[in-house]
Amino acid sequence: YTSAATNSTGLNWSLSNAAAGTLNPTSGEMSWNAGFSGSVDIQVTATGCNGMSDMTTRTVTVNPVVIPSVSISTPFNPVTEGAPATITASPVNGGNNPVYQWKVNGSDAGTNSPEFTYIPQNGDEIQCTMISDAACVTGNPAISELLVIETATARNLNIHVFLQGLYAGNGLMNQASDEYGPHFPDGVADQVSLSLRDAANGSVVAELNNINLSTDGNLSVQVPAEYNGTYYIYLTHRNSITTATATPVSLAGSSTSLDLSSASAVYGNNLLEMIDGVFVIYTGDVNQDGVVDTGDMTPVDNDAATYAAGYLVTDCNGDGVADTGDTTLVDNNAANYVGAALPF
Hints:
Blueprint: E1 8-15, E2 21-23, E3 30-32, E4 38-48, E5 53-62, E6 69-73, E7 79-80, E8 85-92, E9 99-104, E10 107-109, E11 115-118, E12 125-131, E13 142-143, E14 147-148, E15 151-152, E16 155-160, E17 167-169, E18 172-173, E19 177-178, E20 181-182, E21 188-198, E22 204-214, E23 218-223, E24 230-236, E25 243-244, E26 249-250, E27 255-259, E28 272-273, E29 279-280, H1 294-305, H2 324-335
Helix pairs in contact: 1-2
């Protein structure tokens, strides 16, 4: 720091915090103590020939020396063979706009982003270099540890299950229709969704949607390789009661098959036995609130009154039109206080 004074006999420099370092009172040269950071006032006082003085203060912020680092991770390892995997960089002391360079097996890849998505090969080595733009940085750039990616094939999950609204008897279901006829291709009754739930706390681990359920009550879906634990499996359908497996199911094997057409196979034995001895999932939960009641009857009644046709949630028997056939199903299940029985 330098200062010029007019009509003065001399300049005197001073420091508001002696712990910050030392200041030459005549030259204004400052030496900072190692490890000091924070704000400090540097003052210079000019004394005139008449004994009057004037003081100027400057506040200085001393930034600490920082060392940048970066770590990388992926939510799952192994990942599904042939499917995209996302690796995320977590910077420390990266500043406001760090620059990222990803590498796969030593070659540059990806873009300048804290996330890198690609389709991996088994054994790929991923690394990230980060250049920090933080102030007073040392050890720049930072280089992450190597992350070795493993791949595994997806596993098959096969389920045998029937829906009350579409059940026709003798182990077969009708196809759900719209105003023009069957809504899905030949052999497909309707679509359902599955969710994998943590066996300990019920949190959703994965969701598998828009799965074709065949007219003979079978569905098959590929579960990504990373979901190889033990889960409750919830099955949902657009106007049926959500149903869960009776116990957690292990997906550790390459293929898992479940038969949910017997009451003991689902949580709470919450299935309806049909006249031919087949157990089916209750229909009528039009608003998907977990219970069949007037909240479901009202929209069905409203659509039936206007002869609504199409692939409708209010069409509980799947014949392509909302009418008394649907109101009867809902009314009967509501009268029997049908509701979801779930572990969580």
